[in-house]
Amino acid sequence: MELAQREAVGAKFSAAAMQHAQALTWEATEKIAAIIRPGMRESEAIAASKALLDTLGMDRIWHPVLIRFGKNTLRTFSERSDDDPVLGKDDIYFVDIGVVFGAHEGDCGFTRTTGTDPEMQRCADDAKRLFGIVQDHWRTHGVSGQALYEFAKQQAEAMGWVLNLDIKGHRVSDFPHAIYKAGKLADLTDTPSGGLWILEIQIAHPTRAFGAFYEDLLV
User: Fold this and answer.
1) Fold classification of 3-218 (topology level)
2) 184-199 tens-digit pLDDT
3) What pTM does this model have?
4) Burial 27-43, CB ≥16 within 10 A → b, else e
């Protein structure tokens, strides 16, 4: 499929509206993180997050609210959580939401910690840092989606983490992006355009049962 077909948008699409939807999605994600506390179960955090999103003026949720605690931070989007863990006082979690604002899809996610475990904190920080390094590589070198994720894998290993290559990034657009059949960013043999693709980074600790996640619009 040609890149132009993969990056096709609807008649209502606006780059400015796309950016605005993403900004509102980040604000929503921060508000969700502010209500997550040790002692909560994963299911309780998800229910509270959905209730909060209903108050923020979104059009709709376009992908399920995903909140992972502890060992579940190793699981991919499509995998079910293992049990319903309680968030500890020295723990790690991530939030991933996909919501529609102004008929455009926002999608973002980040990892936070609740205590002082240095490896958990470094993992959370490095997921975001790795995103920035990979995005800068795309901006500077104009590489394909495939090359971008190969670079991400190398950089993650250099930091001491394992990149989960089952998380491949995807298109966003005016809702619903799924009609454009764009495929995954990591499978793209062309150079992705800015403002249309979500770069997803999920890393794992090499020996301990936790990881971290960060995603944002590639711009």
Assistant:
1) Creatine Amidinohydrolase (3.90.230)
2) 999 999 999 999 999 9
3) 0.97
4) ebbeebbeebeeebebe
